[in-house]
Amino acid sequence: MNDSTQTQGKQGWWRRLSAGLRRTSASLGGAVADLVTKRKLDGAMVEDIEEVLLRADLGVDVAARIAAAVARGRYDKAISADEVKAVVAAEVETALAPVAAPLAIDAGRKPFVILVVGVNGSGKTTTIGKLSAKFRAEGRAVMLAAGDTFRAAAIEQLKIWGARTHAPVVAREHGADAAGLAFDALAAAKEAGTDVLLIDTAGRLQNKAELMGELEKVTRVIRKVDASAPHAVLLVLDATVGQNALAQVEAFRKTAGVTGLAMTKLDGTARGGILVAIAAKFGLPVHFIGVGEGIDDLAPFAARDFARAIAGLDDEA
Amino acid sequence: MFDTLSERLGGILDRLTGRGALSEADVDAAMREIRRALLEADVALDVVRDFTARVREQAIGATVVKSVTPGQMVVKIVHDELIATLGADGQGIDLNAPPPVAIMMVGLQGSGKTTTTAKLARRLATRDKRKVLMASLDVRRPAAMEQLAVLGRDIAVDTLPVVAGQTPPQIAARALEAARLGGYDIVLLDTAGRTTLDDEMMAEAAEVKRTANPHEVLLVADSLTGQDAVNLARAFDTRVGLTGIVLTRVDGDGRGGAALSMRAVTGKPIKLIGTGEKTDALEDFHPSRIAGRILGMGDVVSLVEKAAATIDAEKAARVAERMRKGAFDLSDLREQLTQMQKLGGLGGLMGMMPGVAKIKNQIASANLDDKLLKRQVAIIDSMTRGERKNPDILKASRKKRIAGGAGVKVEEINKLLKMHRTMADMMKAMGGKAGKRGPMAGLANMMGFGGGMPSPEDMAKLAEKMPGGLPGGMANLPKDLPKNFPGLGGETPGGGLPPGFPGLPGLGGKPPLPFGLPPGKKK
Predict the structure, then answer these.
(1) Nearest alpha carbon to residue A258 among A277, A221, A233
(2) Contact assessment for residue A43 and residue A67, using Cβ atoms and an 8 Å cutoff
(3) Which of B141, B151, B232 has the CB atom closest to A152's CB atom?
C-alpha cells in the first residue's frame, strides 16, 4: 500500500494494471503461496487451489477446471508457489487470449456508432468519458449522445465529460425518449462529419423486460438512419459483480447485440475473475478494462498482463 | 435453482427414504451440492465454509419427517440456518437521538448511494413525517451533487445548497449547522463512492464521520456483488464503522449471496433493500425472503404482502361477493386485470413465484408482458355497459366493433370471453363452498377478498398453495417450459390468456410440492 503515490506518475501500462490489480494478486498469489510452500500436491491441495480461485469470482466450473489443470501430472510431487502461479496464469491466459481484442474503429463508417449499455451503476457514463478522451487523443472527432434520460443528472454528468474532452454532446431534456435522442444524435453526427459517436444509455437490470425492450427500440431507431449501426455495442460490467455478470452478458447480448465488453472498477476489487468465466462461456471480446478513476485509466485489455496480474506474478521486464 | 438443488439433493438422498435418519456420508454428499449452490449464489467462500459446517452438524442424525424426502429435509435445515444467519427481522433505521439525527451513506462507486439516499429521505419524510435535509458530499463524480438536488426536487425534500470548493468534512459540518438552524429532524449525508483500496478516500470518510457524528452509518452495497462482498463490508466496517447495511438492486435476478456474506462478516444488520429505480422502491429487509432467493425459492411472502398492500380491499370484497353469487361479469374481470397491473404485471408477479425465475425470460420472450393486460383492459373498455354485464349478447357485429375500438383482432376478444367464461363457471361452482374453510379461503383471504391482512400462518399456507394457483391459462406459455412446472400441468383448465391472479380458480389439483416442504412443519 505504501507505494500508492508512485502509481500516480507516468508509468508503463503494466505498472498501472498491476497496481490496480494489486489486491487480486496479493490475495490470490499470497494464498497460493501459503498453500503450497513445501508441500506435496494431493487432493486436499487441489481443493484448496480451487477455493482460492473461487474467491476471485472465477465461478465453480472454471475454478474446478483450472485446479484440475494445475494438478494434472503433478500428483505426489513437491510443487513451489511460483509453479502454481505460473500454471494458474497460463490457464487464465488460455481462457482470455482469444477474447482480448482491441475495439477496432472502422474509419469507413462515418460516424462509427458505439452504443454503451449495462446495468445501473456499472460505470457507463464514466467509461464513455474515458473513451471520448482516448478517441480524441487519437485525433478523432467525437460526439456524445446523452441517452440516459432517466437517472437524475446523468445528462449533466455526460456534458461535463464532453466539456473535458472537447466533444459536443447531443442531449434532450430529462425523461425524453432515448430512441428519439439517439436518432437525432446520429443525424447530427452524420451532418458534422464526426468520426465516432458514443451513445450513452440508462442503466437497466437485465431481467426487466420492459427496459430491455426500450433498448431494442434504440437499436431499431438508430438503424433507420444508418442500417449498419450500431457498429459496436459495448457492455460495461462492474468488476465487483459476481456470478450475475453471466446473466447480464447473456441478456444484453440477446437484446442489444453486445459485440464487446468493458470491465470497470478493477482498481477497487480483489476480483475480476468473472471475466475468465465470461470468456469461457461467451467468447465475447473484452476491449477495455478500467483500473482507476482518472480520465486515462481505461486501457485495452491484454490477456497476458491480466492473467499474470491475477496469478500474482511479477512482470519479467 | 431451488428446484435444481432439491433435485440434486434428491438424487443423492432419495435412496435413504424410509431409513429414518441422515447418515454422515449422505450428509457430506449433500453438503457438496449445497456448497456449490451457495457459491453460485455468490456467497463468500469463508461464509460458505462456516455455514456448511453448521448445517452438517444439524443434519447428521436429523430425523426425516415422514412426509418429506431427505433432500427436502436438508433443504429445510439449510433454509432455517440461512434465516438464522441473516439475522432477526425488522431492524429499521434508528432515529432515537436528539435532532438533527445524522445518517451517513457510504459505499463503492455505482452501488446506488445517491438513489438510496433519496429513497430513504422520501420514506422518512412521507412515512415517518420527519423534516429531512439531504447533503451531497460527493465532490468527485461530475454532476453528483446535481443528481441529489434533482432527486430532492422530485421528492420534495430539501437539499443543502452547493458551495463550490468545500471539502466533504466541511460540507458535513455545514449540513449539520443548516439542519440545526432550519429545525430539521434528520440529515442524510451522501458521500462519494470510493474503493476500499483508496486509503485517502477511506480516511476522508472516517473524517466525515468524526465531524458529523452520525447516528447511523449505512453501507450501501450492490446485492449483485460477488466474492468481494466480504472484503468490502469488512473494510468499511473497520475503517469507517458501520451500523447497518442497505442492499440495492434486489430487484435484479441475482441470487443475493452478498447479503449473507456481509451480514456474517460484519454482524451488522441489513436494514433496508432497494427494489426498483423509482424513489419509493425501498423496503424493509426480511431474512426469509433473501434466504429463499439464495436457494432460488422465489419470494412468495413479498408477493402476498404486496398484494395485500396494493389491492383495494373494498373493491376486492365486492368482487368476491359477486363471485360467490356467480355474478362475475366483465367489469369485475376488468377490475381484476387492473389490480394485477398494479402488482407489477405478469413480470413482477412471476418473479416472486417460487421456481419461476428461470422461466421468466422465456415468458418475456413470449411477449406475455403487461401489454397483454393492457390490451385485455382495452377490449373491455371498448364494450358498452350492457355488453360488459351480459357478454352473451356479443355477436359477430358487436365483436367487430369492439375489435376496431380496442385495436385488436376478433379472436382476441373470443379468447378473453372464453377466459371470462371459464372463470365465471368455476366461481359459480365454488360459490357454495367458498366459506371460511374452503379450499379457496386462503387465496381469497390473501387477495383481500376476505378483508383484513392474512396472518403469518395464512401466508405460510398460501406459500404452499400459491404455485398451484397459477392460472390455467398459463398453458399458453412457450412449449419448452418444464413439464413438471408447478401449476402448469395439464390438469388445470387451459384456454384463454394467462389472466394471472384473476384466474384464481386455476388452483387446480394438488401442486407438486413446489415449496419443497409444507411450511410450518418442524423437524
Answers:
(1) A233
(2) no
(3) B151
| B344-395 pLDDT tens trace | 665 556 555 544 444 455 555 445 556 778 888 899 999 998 898 888 888 8
Q: Which of A182, A260, A267 is nearest to A216 (CA)?
A: A182
Residues 369 through 428 of chain B touching chain A, CB cutoff 8 Å: 369-370
Q: Is the four-CA dihedral B446, B448, B450, B456 of positive or negative sign?
A: positive
Contact list, A57 vs chain B (CB under 8 Å): 226-228
Write the single-letter amino acid at B130: R
Lowest mean pLDDT among A185-194, B32-41, B234-243, B432-441: B432-441
**Short-list B126, B121, B115, B125, CA closest to B148:** B115
Between CA B349 and CA B132 the distance in angstroms is 33
Size of interface A-B (CB pairs under 8 A): 157
DSSP string, B56-97: HHHHTTPBPPTTS-HHHHHHHHHHHHHHHHH--S-------S
CB atoms A207 and B360 under 8 Å? yes
Q: Which residue has 434528520 as its cell numbers?
A: B186
User: Are A271 and B249 inside 8 Å of each other by CB?
Assistant: no
pLDDT for the residue B106: 95
> Which of B1-5, B313-317, B402-406, B422-426 holds the top average pLDDT?
B402-406
Determine if the peptide bond prior to B100 is cis (ω within 30°): yes
B149 vs B454, residue with greater confidence:
B149
Find the CB nearest A153 among B40, B150, B232. B150
Q: CA-to-CA distance for A179 and B513, rounded, in angstroms?
A: 45
Find the distance separating the first CA and the last CA of chain B, reported in whole Å: 23
Separation CA B500–CA B349 (nearest Å): 8
Percent of chain B with pLDDT over 90: 28
User: What is this structure's pTM?
Assistant: 0.70
Give the C-alpha separation, A264 to A17, whole Å: 12
Residue A208 backbone dihedrals phi, psi, to 5 degrees: -95, 100
Architecture of domain A3-99: Up-down Bundle (1.20)
Which of chain B's residues have a Cβ under 8 Å away from the Cβ of A206?
Answer: 252-253
| Residue B158 CA, distance from chain mean position | 30
CA distance A211 to chain B (A): 11
- The complex's ipTM? 0.81
Name the CATH superfamily, with its identifier, for domain A112-301: P-loop containing nucleotide triphosphate hydrolases (3.40.50.300)
Distance CA B480, CA B475 (A): 11
When CB atoms are compared, the residue of B228, B360, B361 closest to A271 is B228
pLDDT tens string A19-76? 656 555 555 666 666 665 656 777 777 887 788 788 888 888 888 888 888 888 777 7
Q: Which residues in chain B have their CB less than 8 angstroms from residue A23's CB? A: 197, 231
Inter-chain touch B347–A208, beta carbons under 8 Å: yes
Which of A240, A250, A295 is the best substitution to test chain B (most B C-beta atoms within 10 A)? A240
Contacts of B45 in chain A (CB under 8 A): 51, 54-55
Same fold, A3-99 and A112-301: no
Q: What pLDDT sits at residue B16?
A: 54
Is any Cβ of chain A less than 8 angstroms from the Cβ of B147? yes
B112 touching chain A per CB within 8 A: yes
Predicted local distance difference test score (pLDDT) of residue B9: 61
Q: Where are the domains of chain A?
A: 3-99, 112-301
State the Cα–Cα distance between residues A213 and A223, nearest whole angstrom. 16
pLDDT score for B485? 33
Reply yes or no on whether the pLDDT at B79 is more than 50. Answer: yes
CA–CA distance, A112 with A229 (Å, rounded to integer): 8
Which of A1, A4, A242 minimises the CB distance to B225?
A: A242
